[in-house]
UniProtKB/TrEMBL annotation:
<dbReference type="InterPro" id="IPR026881">
    <property type="entry name" value="WYL_dom"/>
</dbReference>
<dbReference type="InterPro" id="IPR028349">
    <property type="entry name" value="PafC-like"/>
</dbReference>
<dbReference type="InterPro" id="IPR013196">
    <property type="entry name" value="HTH_11"/>
</dbReference>
<dbReference type="Pfam" id="PF25583">
    <property type="entry name" value="WCX"/>
</dbReference>
<dbReference type="Pfam" id="PF13280">
    <property type="entry name" value="WYL"/>
</dbReference>
<feature type="domain" description="HTH deoR-type">
    <location>
        <begin position="2"/>
        <end position="60"/>
    </location>
</feature>
<keyword id="KW-0804">Transcription</keyword>
<dbReference type="InterPro" id="IPR036390">
    <property type="entry name" value="WH_DNA-bd_sf"/>
</dbReference>
<dbReference type="InterPro" id="IPR057727">
    <property type="entry name" value="WCX_dom"/>
</dbReference>
<dbReference type="InterPro" id="IPR001034">
    <property type="entry name" value="DeoR_HTH"/>
</dbReference>
<dbReference type="Pfam" id="PF08279">
    <property type="entry name" value="HTH_11"/>
</dbReference>
<dbReference type="InterPro" id="IPR051534">
    <property type="entry name" value="CBASS_pafABC_assoc_protein"/>
</dbReference>
<keyword id="KW-0238">DNA-binding</keyword>
<dbReference type="InterPro" id="IPR018356">
    <property type="entry name" value="Tscrpt_reg_HTH_DeoR_CS"/>
</dbReference>
<protein>
    <submittedName>
        <fullName>WYL domain-containing protein</fullName>
    </submittedName>
</protein>
<keyword id="KW-0805">Transcription regulation</keyword>
<dbReference type="InterPro" id="IPR036388">
    <property type="entry name" value="WH-like_DNA-bd_sf"/>
</dbReference>
Amino acid sequence: MRADRLLAVLALLQAHGKMSSKEIAEELEVSERTIHRDMQALGIAGIPVIADRGNGGGWSLPEGYRSRLTGMTAGEISSLLFMQTTSVVQDLGLADSTRTAMNKLMSALPPDIRRDAEIARERIHVDGAGWRNTGPRDTGSAHLAVVQEAVWAARKLHMVYRPNDGGPGTDKLIHPLGLVVKSGVWYVMALSGPEEEMRTYRVSRMREARLSPESFERPRSFDLAAAWDASLVRFRDRLPRYEANVRIAATAWNRFSQERYVTIEFHADVGDDWVEAAAAFHTLESAVQIMLGYGRQSQALAPQELRERIAEEARAVAASYAAMTGRE
């Protein structure tokens, strides 16, 4: 435990430059007397800890001293930082450990490399969770380099942006704050319009992109990961929603409950053979398609229009097969 604490003391001094015994003790939740003993132990071990007495004094390390991995570039450090948000780390429950390890790594870096790595972490976010559906990678590579340069240099960006409906592109001037990659698709989060509203743009929908000679001031409180999460909430809130009550065979429930376009509000077992649920689909049409896919293992209880549409489609399918059988 003491060895871990000594390493933590070094990490704090490397990150903050100078700290008082009280500050270190509060950070590590030990007494100031313990910190004095730790500093003595570090000195005996050959680590040049400097004690400044009096007002404004504290403990520090000599300029340039680092207990660091040597030879690592800012690019190599940045690539490690992006691993924090991968689905593998999340799935294995290692998110907190990875975050702690990365903070220790950052504290051990020389100031110039640490600054470059922090800039990368502030401006690029990797979302490891998948969308509802996956498709081919769509990086928008034709303009990605220009967008990245604008983000890095805090330069305004002129672009011609094609909307989702495929309509004509519109000219926009944005303040790009950060890049996000999700399922191989790149997005830029930016302030846009006279009100400087936070918006998200897909890089591959840019028909043109060019740097403006004008720079802009990044909001100091901007957190890219938090802003991205908030944009996802807004996006999901705008999705269409079709609510229904359904009954699913118990043998098919696990598969149905994991349907990508179905949200289960609540469910209850009905005997041993069926599960009844309040479910939210995206649209009436998608509800019909999904329910038909379960055949006799599913029943629509409400609303009535869903029951009627499923019955109509089932009759049409039966008639089609009956006609094929007749021709044979």
